[in-house]
Specification:
The strands form two sheets. This protein has a six-stranded mixed beta sheet, with no helix packed on it. A four-stranded antiparallel beta sheet has the order 1-3-8-7, with no helix packed on it. The protein starts with a strand and ends with a strand. By secondary structure, it is an all-beta fold. The radius of gyration is 13 Å and the shape is globular.
């Protein structure tokens, strides 16, 4: 059974940084493209980033490009999102997922950026 467990969220000041890990179970992580999506208060799911199974290819939404970095450790079946220069509009629940629509996502982790 696929299980994705996000963590690492919290309250951070404007311009600060956070690193979100996503621990995975129940599928061949090393063979899977992985995604981060987020949901801001009152809004729908938004695709944030994706990474190829090997980690050699990444892409980002324009809103986070240059500030966020996606990475993975296939030996640990873990996905990461490094978030720098955080803005108030980055406040959201962040999920790792199996596709850009949020398939298989877990409970998520809340990120709140305060001024």
């Amino acid at each position: 059974q696929v299980q994705l467990v996000e963590s690492g969220g919290g309250l951070v000041q404007l311009g600060g940084s956070l690193r979100l890990p996503c621990t995975t179970f129940g599928f061949f992580f090393s063979r899977s493209w992985m995604y981060w999506v987020r949901q801001a208060p009152g809004k729908g799911l938004e695709w944030v980033s994706r990474i190829s199974s090997s980690g050699g290819s990444t892409s980002y939404a324009e809103s986070v490009k240059g500030r966020f970095t996606i990475s993975r450790d296939n030996a640990k079946s873990t996905l990461y999102l490094q978030m720098n220069s955080l803005k108030s509009e980055d406040t959201a629940v962040y999920y790792c997922a199996l596709d850009q629509f949020g398939t298989g996502r877990g409970q998520g982790t809340q990120v709140t950026v305060s001024s």
